[in-house]
Design goal:
Elements (H helix, E strand, L loop, with lengths): L2 E2 L64 H15 L12 E4 L2 H11 L3 E7 L5 H7 L3 E7 L10 H9 L4 E5 L13 H9 L4 E5 L30 E6 L12 E4 L2 H14 L5 H7 L5 H29 L12 E5 L10 H10 L2 E2 L1 E2 L21 E5 L4 H19 L1
Parallel strand pairs: 1-10, 3-4, 3-5, 5-6, 6-7
Antiparallel strand pairs: 2-8, 7-8, 9-12, 11-12
């Protein structure tokens, strides 16, 4: 029985052998990915997910590589309702491309970028390594964020990157793995700095896991600050995977200027073939704006409660929590106060496996696509990323295992 506390096993390129992955119960087979929140229908106030899907005649055919028009219309309508009220510039279906998952979206974006210096921040999402290493049309420039500053992305940092020639900036927001969000007015200032100077790629998959507004359902998105949806070079990536808790559907989207979206849709014909049509059709009613607002309220209330429980248990076990996450379902857990034998991410990870618990060593978020640095000197070495995405019972068992690890190390 393996109690999953963290989302992803080490990347294939890490050199660490993959162990078994999470199980929700003794009779459930391993899920094989660990990249998801809990997917059951028992969150209070959450809508019921489909248990079966009617397949239309059009669902038997190849779909457009940019996605079916009705879903693209529904996504544009959602963004306009939640982020563009009262603004003259509104998204249309032509500003949306549907893609088969977030990684596919990142790969499509990379395929259409011109030669450029692309800036990214450390730590950040492990999948960016693949995107940044596969394509030679841009040079990836890392920019480390300060631990003492809570890994914040400040407008001055963005201005500095642009001043040294960076013309594309990639980041998650809310941020994976640190669990913090850049919100207005800071986010608006960053977009003002980038306007007409740099393309901003915002991975917003965790935008619904926002605990900064009293769980009122507000989703964080750079769409709030865009002046012209066809002129501002801002690409937003989101989907059903995280905030709708449907990772198995592989339905995601990119929202941005029509010119970008046209190219992103076209390159799908040779990169991935497009998203599953029946699941696209089934997603349309889920995206009704009032329905989404209710869903986000339920999501935020439920996951904030789990966050508070996990932080409380970790404090009791003896961890020093210096940065309380205000978004996502991750805790960037500092191990430096633990006994030496478990005070780095790799050794802690090994001990967790012995207790049938998985965490992700922090060095895997120190993105190193060109393999130019020795990650054993990484500032992320004494961290692990811990997830409170699984169900509460799984979290309890996992934390019990972590408590045993710490007690044994202190003996």
């Amino acid at each position: 029985m393996l109690d999953s506390i963290l989302l992803e096993p080490p990347p294939e390129s890490s050199g660490v052998r993959r162990g078994p992955t999470s199980m929700a119960s003794p009779t459930t087979p391993p899920d094989g990915r660990q990249g998801a929140p809990e997917v059951d229908d028992d969150i209070e106030g959450s809508f019921q997910r489909p248990k079966s899907i009617d397949i239309s005649m059009s669902g038997r055919e190849y779909g457009p590589t940019a996605g079916i028009k009705p879903l693209r219309v529904a996504i544009a309508n959602l963004y306009n309702a939640h982020h563009r009220k009262g603004k003259s510039s509104q998204y249309s279906w032509e500003n949306v491309a549907v893609v088969p998952g977030g990684r596919a979206g990142l790969i499509r974006i990379a395929a259409v970028l011109n030669n450029a210096y692309l800036g990214f921040f450390i730590p950040d999402y492990t999948a960016y390594n693949e995107m940044l290493s596969l394509f030679r049309n841009f040079a990836a420039i890392p920019s480390p964020l300060a631990e003492g500053d809570g890994y914040q992305i400040h407008p001055d940092k963005i201005a500095e990157e642009i001043s040294r020639g960076t013309s594309v900036i990639l980041t998650s927001n809310p941020r994976n793995p640190t669990g913090h969000v850049v919100k207005n007015p800071q986010l608006a200032e960053i977009q003002d700095i980038c306007r007409d100077r740099a393309t901003l790629i915002m991975d917003e998959f965790y935008g619904g896991y926002n605990y900064t507004t009293n769980c009122d359902g507000t989703t964080v998105s750079a769409a709030d600050n865009i002046e012209d949806v066809d002129e501002d070079d801002v690409l937003l990536i989101d989907g059903l995977t995280k905030r709708f808790r449907l990772p198995g559907w592989r339905i995601a989207w990119i929202v941005g200027p029509k010119e970008f979206i046209s190219a992103i849709g076209s390159c799908g014909s040779y990169l991935d073939g497009g998203a599953n049509v029946p699941f696209q059709e089934a997603a349309i009613p889920m995206l009704e704006p009032d329905n989404v607002l209710r869903e986000m309220k339920a999501l935020q209330t439920h996951f904030k409660s789990k966050r508070d429980y996990v932080l409380g248990r970790l404090t009791e076990i003896g961890f020093k929590i210096t940065n309380v996450p205000d978004s996502t379902f991750y805790i960037w857990l500092d191990l430096s106060g633990l006994p030496t034998s478990i005070s780095d991410g790799l050794n802690f990870f090994q001990k967790c496996l012995e207790q049938h618990v998985i965490v992700v060593p922090g060095i895997f978020f120190d993105l190193n696509p060109a393999k130019r640095r020795d990650l054993f000197d990484s500032p992320c070495h004494h961290f692990v990323r811990l997830s409170y995405g699984p169900k509460m019972e799984t979290l309890r068992r996992g934390l019990d295992g972590i408590e045993r690890i710490v007690k044994k190390a202190k003996e």
